[in-house]
Design brief:
The protein has about 200 residues and is mostly helical. Helices cover about 80% and strands about 0% of the residues. Helix 2 packs across helix 7, helix 6 packs antiparallel against helix 10 and helix 7 crosses helix 9. It is elongated and about 55 Å long. The relative contact order is 0.11.
Length: about 200
């Protein structure tokens, strides 16, 4: 993760550095990305870059954290569900928004593919998966409170199983984006949610 002094930078400068890093990682993946190219594109010195990040992996993690934050902002205006049917409708709307965002934003699509392609050897992937699992558990807990999600199994088991399914589906979609039309993939989104609901619904 970035060093604390990075967070103290003016927002415009943080965004410029993150944009340069995001472009590099999207185009070349983590292994092929060059820290020196990121530094040049960001318009800062090598010393300054190491003042903000310990290494390339730190910069990569910062880019992915920024993606998470952008996702949170994109979903922040969704109306909170108040019953079981509302919970599944809320989940469907949020899923469609995310799928459209990743499908229509080429850089996000490339970052997603790169993350999954290096998953087995990349500690950042494990960090992302752990953060995602935390969000999933929070969502499932809300669903249980509304009577939408089954409660006959431990919550952490449901979260683990759901995270695994979502990761597998996301990896498949990330790969297929290069081969199938976006509209065809988006049309599958409700069916995928139905599969999740079959596993989790009461």
């Amino acid at each position: 993760m970035p060093l604390p002094r990075f967070e103290k930078l003016p927002k415009e400068k943080r965004r410029k550095i993150l944009a340069a890093a995001a472009h590099e990682f999207a185009e070349h993946g983590f292994e092929g990305a060059s820290f020196n190219r990121i530094i040049a594109a960001a318009g800062i010195s090598k010393g300054a870059m190491y003042y903000y990040f310990a290494d390339k992996a730190d910069a990569y993690a910062a880019v992915l954290e920024d993606v998470f934050d952008q996702i949170g902002e994109a979903l922040s205006d969704l109306e909170e569900p108040t019953d079981a049917d509302g919970f599944w409708a809320w989940l469907a709307e949020g899923s469609m928004r995310l799928n459209e965002s990743f499908g229509r934003d080429e850089q996000l699509s490339k970052l997603s593919r790169g993350l999954y392609q290096s998953a087995s050897a990349d500690p950042t992937y494990r960090h992302v998966l752990a953060r995602g699992r935390g969000h999933v558990e929070s969502i499932l807990s809300r669903g249980q409170a509304l009577g939408a999600v089954r409660d006959d199994l431990p919550l952490n088991l449901l979260a683990e199983a759901t995270t695994g399914m979502i990761a597998a589906v996301d990896r498949w979609f990330a790969d297929e984006m290069e081969r199938r039309p976006l509209d065809e993939l988006l049309a599958m989104s409700p069916k995928v949610l139905s599969m999740v609901r079959d596993m989790l619904g009461r």
